[in-house]
From TrEMBL:
UniProt organism field: Thermocrinis ruber
Protein name according to UniProt: tRNA N6-adenosine threonylcarbamoyltransferase
HAMAP family: TsaD
First-tier enzyme category under EC: transferase
Gene Ontology cellular component list: cytoplasm
Its biological purpose: Required for the formation of a threonylcarbamoyl group on adenosine at position 37 (t(6)A37) in tRNAs that read codons beginning with adenine. Is involved in the transfer of the threonylcarbamoyl moiety of threonylcarbamoyl-AMP (TC-AMP) to the N6 group of A37, together with TsaE and TsaB. TsaD likely plays a direct catalytic role in this reaction.
Residues annotated as binding substrate: V133, V134, S135, G136, G137, D166, G179, D183, N267
Presence of the UniProt keyword Metal-binding in the record: yes
Localisation per UniProt entry: Cytoplasm
Length: 326
């Protein structure tokens, strides 16, 4: 079974050809980071225009590189939700045109389901498992009982973790996206600044990160601060909260296997911390390769195949939505 997957939910234009037997046949990904950098964040209208400009040339590159005959595709997978609506519209329209031309079905994929199952591209996790989704738009904990069976346990009440990385980077004038930049600076600094760990002692699995951003702002506005030390302090606070909430979820559910997914799971300190907890036998962390942590079409293809196997296809008039819950 082979699918071509289209991912355009935010600022990455991505396509992948994936087989349930052979794995990744080919993939292409174009980041729009340079386009949005000067604005300090993603500009939705520009994002949609970039997707429109780049999808067809990228498909040609993918087919040239792989020598793949598009007629071998069994169905087209695409990200339906959540995401920037204009960007999703471009991807859905492209997927529909391909499906119509090739006379193949369309399979809608939930972006977060793609993130959760990104781990399976490398190695499967025995279900049930916990999923900590940490991306630019989401910071959520789920109990995954099986494919398509997700129990929401808690999540951020305000900013997503990736979003706070990006906002804190903007406060410090570091550029976009902030996550990789803060990750790099933090390695050169010490977590010297006393920052809050919001809701860390709250008994629920909910989180909050906007107060942390405000505390960083106060230090920046005070002037004369070290970007390296502030990055290290911010990151330490974020990871303390994520770890505490994750351990609480393990305690509440009795499930120790954890998929840590989404763009922020590319973070080097996060990976080291969860790796250490795994070595100590406290949890069993599964973190995708950084290329699969951030947005990509391979994860959409993987989830697309699982959905198609369960008979899920999209009607011809399907329309994207910015935020359908998982
Ligand atoms: O999953 P993703 O690519 O897109 C969404 O679905 O939102 O996540 C993007 C987010 C951005 O906020 C970016 O700053 C963050 O992931 N990110 C990181 C790192 N790499 C990307 N955050 C922390 N450390 C990183 N190394
Ligand atoms: Zn994402």
């Amino acid at each position: 079974m082979i699918t071509l997957a289209v991912e355009t939910s935010c600022d990455e234009t991505a396509l992948a050809i994936y087989s349930d037997k052979e794995g990744i046949i080919g993939e292409v990904l174009l980041s729009q980071a340079k386009v949005h950098e000067q604005f300090g964040g993603v500009v939705p209208e520009l994002s949609a225009r970039e997707h429109t400009k780049n999808l067809l040339p990228l498909l040609k590159v993918l087919l040239d590189r792989t020598g793949f005959d598009l007629k071998r595709v069994d169905f087209i997978s695409f990200t339906l939700t959540p995401g920037l609506i204009l960007s999703l519209v471009v991807g859905v329209s492209f997927a529909k045109a391909l499906a119509y031309t090739l006379k193949k079905p369309l399979v809608p994929v939930h972006h977060l389901e793609g993130h959760i199952y990104s781990v399976f591209v490398e190695r499967p996790i025995e279900e049930p498992f916990l999923a900590l989704v940490v991306s630019g738009g989401h910071t959520d904990l789920y109990l995954v009982e099986g494919f398509g069976k997700y129990r929401f346990l808690g999540g951020t009440l305000d900013d997503a973790v990736g979003e706070s990385y990006d906002k804190v980077a903007r406060l410090m004038g570091l550029g976009y996206p902030g996550g990789p930049i803060i990750d790099r600076l933090a390695r050169q600094g010490e977590p010297k600044y006393p920052l809050p760990r919001p809701m860390i002692d709250d008994p629920s699995l909910n989180m909050s990160f906007s107060g942390l951003k405000t505390a960083v702002r106060k230090i920046v506005e005070g002037g004369n601060y070290s970007k390296e030390d502030l990055s290290a302090s911010f990151q330490r606070a974020v990871l303390d909260v994520l770890e505490a909430k994750l351990l609480k979820a393990v305690e509440l559910t009795g499930v120790k296997r954890v998929a840590v997914v989404g763009g922020v799971s590319a973070n080097s300190e996060l990976r080291e911390r969860f790796q250490k907890l795994t070595e100590k036998g406290i949890i069993s962390a599964y973190i995708p390769h950084p290329r699969l942590s951030t947005d990509n079409a391979v994860m959409i293809a993987y989830a697309g195949i699982e959905r198609f196997k369960r008979g899920i296809t999209a009607p011809e008039d399907i329309n994207p939505e910015p935020n359908i819950p998982l």
